[in-house]
Amino acid sequence: MSRKNVLFIVTSHASLGDEKETTGLWLEELAAPYYAFIDAGCDVRIVSISGGSVPIDPKSQAERGENPESVERFLDDKNAMAAIQHTPSVAEVDTFGFDALFIPGGHGTMWDMPDNEHLAKLVAATYESGRIVAAVCHGPAGLVGARLSNGEPLVKDRDVSAFTDSEEEAVGLTDTVPFLLESRLTELGANVRSAPNFEPFALADGNLITGQNPPSSEKVAELVLRALKM
To answer: Whole-angstrom Cα distance, residue 77 to residue 71?
Structure first.
């Protein structure tokens, strides 16, 4: 069996809008699938929207020993940590050598992904080529700008999951984010599916695979591996 290649695309945005509070990538949403793919024998690469060092949401890291196992492993992994400190930008990447794209969340995605033309083109081209496009939690913000060759939103009439409006309200950021992700996906014609707040949930609609929240990250990775026949 040939090795499969997975490209992670992560946020470069580090602040909650005009607020002084910092945000960025939610680390579990990268770490859990990262090791699912590594342990399955995949080759993995990480790029970010702007390139350079990836901002990590401080709320996604607890005291050492109190994080999810994948996060602890990532923090101890010199190669993984180096990979997020020196990322190429999404504009520099040719994705045609990759079998799957995976977009982790974190609130930073809500600012720098929806209107990024390079990301939109990469996502649409990957999807239309029949390869896998996956995203979790706020990662589906990276699907918002993607249009198919017929001009339709990529998510139109697709079953998708993402961080819900109810979950956004529960974390107190409804009035901080630039838009509500579940509502925006619905406006674009997606059929948004979800579980109760903060319970793991993921689904596949053809080669589009999405998950609802941080605890869903591993489930999304499992669906990607199944689609890759690994």
So the answer is: 10
